[in-house]
Write a structure and sequence with these properties.
Elements lengths: L2 E2 H4 L5 E12 L2 E6 L1 E2 L13 E3 L2 E8 L5 E5 L8 E6 L1 H25 L3 E6 L4 E5 L5 H16 L4 E4 L3 H5 L15 E4 L3 E4 L14 E8 L7 E7 H22 L6 H33 L7 E5 L4 H11 L6 E8 L3 E8 L4 H12 L1 E5 L3 E6 L3 H10 L3
Parallel strand pairs: 1-4, 16-17
Antiparallel strand pairs: 2-3, 2-8, 3-7, 5-6, 5-8, 6-7, 9-10, 10-15, 11-12, 12-13, 14-15, 17-18, 18-20, 19-20
Helix pairs in contact: 2-3, 6-7
Length: 389
């Protein structure tokens, strides 16, 4: 079994180790060392990457027998001692996020009695599922309390209690654990079973930010939150701040009043959309009144009307023709959207021949079909002047 140095010192960045095996598996190599500071994937935290000598380690997992397997793309020499180093920047960010998750989960459990029933540390956010409902106001208070815990600089320790000690201990755990249990304790905040490396004090977490909350879609009642801690939270805040500054400039609003400015803009936009729809309907009716009745078909082109008004135009046009009424919206450069209606032709049956003639695709009911096509204006005009349905 590999000696797990990450249990001895979670801040160990470099170490020396002997290669005990190097096995090819599907074009890559699985390397086992006699000792390692590379944390293998587990407890919701991804496996470490880094280097064994000059060979890149791109992932790390634990084997069934307790050895740690380092995945590389080229072989290393068995029996040789190598200088090894982990990707510390990535590892430290993960430890910040994981320790921050313990703080938040511990506070939620202590205050509301809800359990963390799902945890995933992705490349962009940390996701936590709780088995109880939490309002956004409650989560904001949890976030404030979590950052007070960070500022308090509480100790974070990891131990392997004896079975007798474990029986007397109240701790959080998402599942039954066979064998020896590792307990991570955040002073005055949380006690939880966990196999992953953590920071040494809450101050190292840096900051805790809860980003979103939504109802759990699977697994019963509760909420799913996303959060970030430490340097990841800082990077996220920088992006948000820069975006807010740009919005502030574009809307001529103070940086702390951009939300109100956006609401005003959306309200104005809704009014303009409503007014535009009214004008489109009026224009559609004016165009419909100009259509001369015919026993044949009608083919119209438009680049202004919205889809409801185009449908209104067709409904009026079919009253004035004995064949079909068609309107094409778009241009020769971008292609056309079409709506076709008729009182005398079964358009569902005719749609295949119509689409073949205009290089289009679409369908609908016997009375109306719609879709898109790439035929040019002149081709469409010629087809509808001579086509029989």
């Amino acid at each position: 079994m590999t000696e797990k140095l990450y249990y001895i010192d979670s801040h160990m960045k470099e170490f020396t180790a002997e290669v005990t095996s190097c096995t090819e598996n599907g074009g890559r190599y699985e390397v086992v060392l006699d000792r390692t500071a590379f944390f293998p994937e587990g407890g919701g935290q991804l496996g470490d990457s880094g280097y064994i000598g000059h060979v890149r380690v791109f992932d790390t997992h634990e084997g069934a027998n307790g050895d740690v397997r380092h995945y590389v793309n080229q072989p290393v020499e068995c029996g040789k001692v190598y200088d090894c180093r982990i990707d510390w920047v990535t590892r430290f960010r993960r430890m910040q996020n994981h320790s921050g998750e313990h703080i938040v989960s511990g506070l939620v459990h202590k205050k509301y009695g809800y359990n963390n029933v799902g945890f995933h540390m992705g490349s962009d956010v940390v996701t936590i599922d709780f088995d109880g409902e939490l309002s956004w106001e409650q989560l904001c208070e949890i976030e404030r309390e979590a950052n007070r815990t960070v500022a308090a600089n509480y100790r974070i320790t990891a131990t392997f209690p004896s079975p007798e000690e474990l029986e007397k201990l109240e701790y959080r755990s998402k599942k039954e654990i066979a064998g020896q249990v590792r307990i991570v304790e955040v002073e005055n905040t949380d006690i939880c079973a966990c196999c992953a490396p953590h920071v040494s004090t809450t101050a190292e977490v840096g900051t805790v930010r809860i980003l979103t909350s939504e109802h759990r879609r699977r697994g019963g009642e509760g909420v799913r939150i996303t959060m970030l801690c430490g340097l990841d939270a800082y990077d996220n805040e920088v992006i948000i701040s820069r975006n807010n500054t740009e919005i502030s400039t574009l809307l001529s609003a103070k940086r702390d009043e951009t939300a109100q400015a956006v609401h005003r803009l959306l309200n104005e936009n809704e009014k303009l959309k409503s007014r535009s729809a009214e004008l489109c309907r009026a224009l559609a009716m004016m165009r419909a009144q100009e259509i001369e009745p015919t026993d044949g078909s009608i083919c119209l082109f438009d680049s202004v009307l919205d889809e409801p008004s185009l449908r209104l135009l067709i409904n009026e046009a079919v009253k004035k023709c004995g064949g079909i009424a068609a309107v094409f919206s778009g241009s020769d450069e971008t292609g056309f959207r079409y709506i076709i209606g008729s009182r005398t032709v079964d358009l569902r049956k005719a749609s295949k021949s119509i689409n073949a003639a205009i290089s289009g695709r679409g369908g609908g009911s016997p009375e109306m079909i719609q879709g898109s096509c790439i035929a040019c204006t002149e081709t469409i005009k010629n087809i509808f002047s001579n086509f029989t349905f």
